[in-house]
Amino acid sequence: MFIAMNRFKIASGKEAEFVAIWRDRETHLHEVPGFREFHLLQGPSNGEYTLFASHSTWDSKDAFEAWTHSEAFRKAHASAGGSKGLYLGPPQFEGFEVVL
Questions:
Q1: Among the ranges 21-30, 40-49, 80-89, which has the highest mean pLDDT value?
Q2: With the C-alpha atoms ordered 43, 25, 65, 85, is the resulting torsion angle positive or negative?
Q3: Structural domains of the chain, ranges and CATH numbers in brackets
């Protein structure tokens, strides 16, 4: 099993807008072999930003990487650049192989 996470620093006051973008978008993940589940996590705030993480679980790293090269990935990320002012920097990717 493989877990893929992206961390996002979202400008204070923009949290609801960020959550709405994720809630309302079509991810196309249901079309992807090896996909198991997705969660959007909200973490601590520090006055400047709130930390969020997207968390997806896959059958394998190969299944996740195949998705990143798929049409479903391109569709899901087609409007990713249209949210200026929400993000304080680019997302930070972290990938994990499940060992236990």
A1: 40-49
A2: negative
A3: 2-97 (3.30.70.100)
